[in-house]
């Protein structure tokens, strides 16, 4: 890594960290309220008290509001949070999530081929600090959500050598906490890493077994249908649902034929992503392949809040790396566009009343409300065109 790049990122990261910390201290109720972490703590307490985490909402009595939507295995992982007092829970939510983000940045840079040494570990800290100004990361930090952890488990797993016998286990654990990372098992299959895919499935099965052994009632409730009950999350047309299904629900509805249309389009996007990811992986572009899978998983998920889109942070790392190459004009354009769409809090510094483009009021709000979805589709299309061009060039040279 060139020294000017290292020191520039180090300085910018320090400024970004200072600005973020100042913003949190000025408005902790917005940027560090940790509502979801508090709900995880309630789930941990219920496990200790022998009370089901699924039979009733964790807070209040309204279906679809503050219900536990993770696996029984996840509830067991939240037990250590049960007895933490307020100062400690804030440290876990704030400092803990930031350190996990730094590990994610390290794994992403390792996947790009950077030497895995102390210098890279140090460099990962300012990169993570810069990512605090990415809206999904910012919201995950504010809620104390698990999304950064899940992304980190996947990135660290895929950063392991293919020869490592335990490769795939962390993906299985991530899927054992929340089902959506199971998409990466398909990625392992499509990229012909069958042993890692099998390890992921075994790892996931172990989390299920642990759940059934320790929480048999909740496991039966969850796996017999609660995991697929959309009412536990909320109505699909909710303005906060920034997935493909949310967009369809708000524009054409999701009943009957519309529901089938959503499933067909989501399946087509998922398949296209996996085919592109296989090409990228075989060509040595592992991080971009994994990032597209992460974004696609969020796009085709039935319900995606803004903090689910943490894979935009990995996309920013991909584009930042690409922009360091000589004459990388298209990479700079992509980086600027992605940052403009994904940034959080930057607009406030520029005098806007909105923290991101998602909530800017105008007559066609559905356009910016689905900005992450459009960005994902554009990214898939650009990658497909770039992969197609070399093939056309080779054909023309024959």
From TrEMBL:
Question: Its topology with respect to the membrane?
Answer: Multi-pass membrane protein
Tell me which family the UniProt entry assigns to this protein: Belongs to the glycosyltransferase 87 family.
Q: Has the keyword Thylakoid been applied to this entry?
A: no
Q: What is this protein called?
A: Glycosyltransferase 87 family protein
List the Pfam families.
GT87 (PF09594)
Localization, per the record, is: Cell membrane
Which keywords accompany this UniProt record?
Cell membrane, Membrane, Transferase, Transmembrane, Transmembrane helix
Membrane-crossing segments per the record: 64-81, 88-112, 118-134, 146-164, 170-190, 197-215, 260-277, 284-300, 306-324, 331-351, 371-388
Principal subcellular localization? membrane
